[in-house]
Specification:
The chain is α+β, with helices and mostly antiparallel strands. It has two domains: 29-132, Immunoglobulins (Immunoglobulin-like); 137-368, Rossmann fold, CATH 3.40.50.1820. It is built from seven helices and 20 strands. The longest helix is centred in the first third of the chain and has 25 residues, at 2-26. The protein is globular and about 70 Å long. It starts with a helix and ends in a 6-residue tail after the last helix. Residues 1-25 have low confidence and may be disordered. InterPro entries: AB_hydrolase_fold (IPR029058), Esterase-like (IPR000801), Ig-like_fold (IPR013783), Mycobacterial_A85_antigen (IPR050583). Keywords: Signal. It comes from Emticicia aquatica.
């Protein structure tokens, strides 16, 4: 009797699980469209209006195919083999709005999805997918005047080589004679100097804000934030001094000499996401005579005690996603304000440690700069 009861309960549980899965699947809207980040003429991956993603991988000789850990939760998305030998699957639930990295595991090996474009993240070129966002208009490509993003190579005697940076100059820069403030904007760990303009769409965000009359034009500079390579989990081994030398003593003088900048502390800002926030905090406190505007985007916080015997910056901007640690950001902002600092805290609703948080953060921070 006991064994019969156990079998009955087990069967009920399995049936309930199947019914739940079927019910869940029935609620998914079949309005899937190719991701906007797909390579030309590639149909998959697809996304629907609810934020689900659907994948198709052609690997007829494979025994198992899974989309990378974390995408869709619970160990990733396991794909099922179809009659034509391809593998297909849909995420278990909707994904957060915005950009996501992912890769494909085929029989345990890590590969990129041949259907989509690649973006540098996690110390490798990863596949990327864009989940449509309700507020995506602020980073959309619109029929407005556009700035220019150019690659520069600047000499770095301290590292014995030339290093790369990307410089955004606002619309009208090439035809004008005016000088501009500069925001030095840093990427996160595992990314590089391409991240903010590619994944973050920073140039489009600033183009749109300028076109709407919400900000005065300024220059943005992105450079690689690593001078000693640090592996995952070893971030405490990162040494700021070599990168600080590259940024403060080599890159900034090069930018000031080759672009029409207002080469003054009062017209210079530094901000960064995640590890770039850590770099920003350390360098701004080490070099308070270089920058006047500070921004930490999912990159820690400042406290009023950090500024003992140091001048107050013109602005401290702190942000993160609501799925991170928003209370810490809010409390730090309030503590700074109550002690006399011009501090602003912002929390991106419904996002985590991801580019939609940082896109929104740039949108909120940009109008506060260079006042």
């Amino acid at each position: 009797m006991k064994n019969f009861l156990k079998i009955t309960l087990l069967a009920t549980a399995i049936l309930s699980s199947i019914n739940f899965s079927q019910a869940q699947q029935s609620t998914i809207k079949e309005d899937f469209k190719p991701s906007v980040l797909n390579q030309p003429q590639q149909e998959y991956p697809m996304v629907n209006s609810q934020g689900y993603a659907r994948f198709k991988i052609v690997a007829p000789a494979a025994d198992s195919v899974r989309v990378s850990l974390g995408l869709g939760g619970r160990g990733g998305t396991k794909l099922a083999k179809t009659e034509d030998g391809s593998w297909m699957g849909t995420t278990e639930g909707p994904l957060d709005e915005g950009f996501h990295y992912y890769n494909v595991r085929i029989d345990g090996g890590k590969f990129n999805d041949p259907g989509t474009l690649n973006y540098y993240g996690s110390v490798r070129w990863e596949s990327g997918i864009e989940i449509p966002a309700q507020d995506e208009d602020f980073y959309a490509l619109k029929n407005v005047p556009h700035g220019n993003v150019q690659q520069i190579l600047f000499p770095s005697p301290s590292t014995g080589t030339s290093r790369r940076a990307f410089v955004y100059t606002p619309p009208g820069y090439e035809k004008g004679k005016g000088k501009y403030p500069v925001l030095y904007l840093q990427h996160g760990w595992g990314e590089d100097e391409t991240a903010w303009m590619s994944q973050g769409r920073a140039n489009l965000i600033i183009d749109n804000l300028i076109a709407e009359g919400k900000i005065k034009p300024f220059i943005i500079v992105n450079t690689y934030g690593m001078t000693n390579e640090v592996k995952w989990g070893k971030i405490r081994e990162f040494k700021i001094e070599p990168f600080q030398t590259v940024l403060v003593d080599e890159l900034i003088p090069f930018v000031d000499a080759n672009f029409r900048t207002i080469a003054k502390k009062e017209q210079r800002a530094m901000a960064g996401l995640s590890m770039g926030g850590m770099e920003t905090k350390t360098i701004t406190l080490n070099k308070p005579d270089v920058f006047a505007y500070y921004g930490l985007l999912s990159g820690g916080t400042y406290a009023s005690t950090d500024f003992k015997d140091k001048p107050q910056p013109k602005l401290i901007f702190l942000s993160c996603g609501s799925k991170e640690r928003p209370d810490g950001v809010r409390k730090a902002g309030e503590e700074l304000k109550t002690t006399g600092f011009n501090a602003v805290s912002y929390v991106s609703e419904g996002t985590a440690h991801e580019f939609q948080t940082w896109r929104r953060s740039l949108l909120q921070m940009a109008p506060l700069l260079f006042k």
